[in-house]
Design brief:
By secondary structure, the protein is an alpha/beta fold. It has one domain: 2-enoyl-CoA Hydratase, Chain A, domain 1 (Alpha-Beta Complex). It is 49% helix and 17% strand. The chain has a 6-stranded mixed beta sheet, with helices on both faces. It has a 4-stranded mixed beta sheet with strand order 4-6-8-9. Helix 1 packs parallel to helix 3. The N and C termini lie far apart (42 Å).
């Protein structure tokens, strides 16, 4: 489902396999476990670190596992499963908000719904420009946005017209337009180039030797409403400064 490896000072978190990396309970649990490992290792070795998240195959992530939800049988049981995924995924956003290192999403394939939210939960977003698209599918599926999804989008998509097109228009946005609209930072030719650039950026950021707890607290201060929405507004990370 996912792997975590260390390349120099960079943790590489990879969603594995050739499927669409649906965010069901098992994958969400695996992501949280990997992020917990990265957090512990970074705090035990204060020399500087960064995290890159990427994926195998043509999808970065295709959102929540709606097939698993529907397999529950009745509409009420399916709704309960969907609500459970919404609740389980909020701590992933919280984990990324409080991770004591810079984070980079390498969008190596399509990112839809919760998969789009996963990418936006990172500090830096790089994207392949040749084929991948970003897509919030909730409007097309007739599903309301979780409150913290909307808070995340408002925090990371500053142009109100782009927010309208993403949330209310269910627009499928390719790399070139995503870059022009400020959703992603840079574009690359394909998945290999995107991952290579993300790892390079991660190594550069890790090389700054920033104090992880200070970085995390500064990130939280930048997005107070989002921290409140996912329940980490009052959570404090403490460590010695460089003074």
């Amino acid at each position: 489902m996912c792997t975590l490896e260390k390349r120099g000072r960079v943790f590489l978190l990879t969603l594995t396999g050739d499927d669409d990396h649906r965010l069901g309970p098992d994958l969400i649990a695996a992501l949280r476990s990997a992020l917990s490992t990265a957090r512990k290792e970074a705090l035990s070795d204060p020399g500087g670190a960064a995290l890159v998240t990427a994926a195998q195959g043509r999808f970065f992530s295709n959102g929540f596992d709606l097939q698993w939800a529907k397999a529950a049988g009745s509409p009420s049981a399916a709704q309960a499963r969907l609500e459970s995924m919404v609740s389980l995924f909020a701590p992933v956003v919280a984990d990324l908000l409080t991770l004591p290192m810079p984070t980079i999403a390498a969008i190596t394939g399509h990112a839809a719904a919760a998969g789009f939210a996963l990418a936006m939960s990172h500090d830096h977003v790089l994207m392949r420009g040749d084929r991948a698209v970003l897509y919030m599918s909730e409007m097309d599926l007739g599903l309301p946005f979780p409150d913290y999804f909307m808070t995340l989008m408002k925090a990371k998509i500053v142009d109100p017209r782009t927010l309208r097109d993403v949330a209310l228009g269910a627009m499928k946005i390719g790399g070139k337009e995503a870059k022009e609209r400020g959703i992603v930072d840079k574009l690359y030719a394909g998945p290999e180039e995107t991952l290579e650039a993300a790892l390079k950026l991660g190594e550069e950021l890790a090389g700054r030797g920033w104090v992880g707890s200070v970085y995390a607290e500064t990130r939280k201060a930048a997005f107070p409403e989002l921290c409140k929405a996912v329940g980490v507004a009052d959570e404090k990370l403490t460590a010695a400064s460089k003074l």
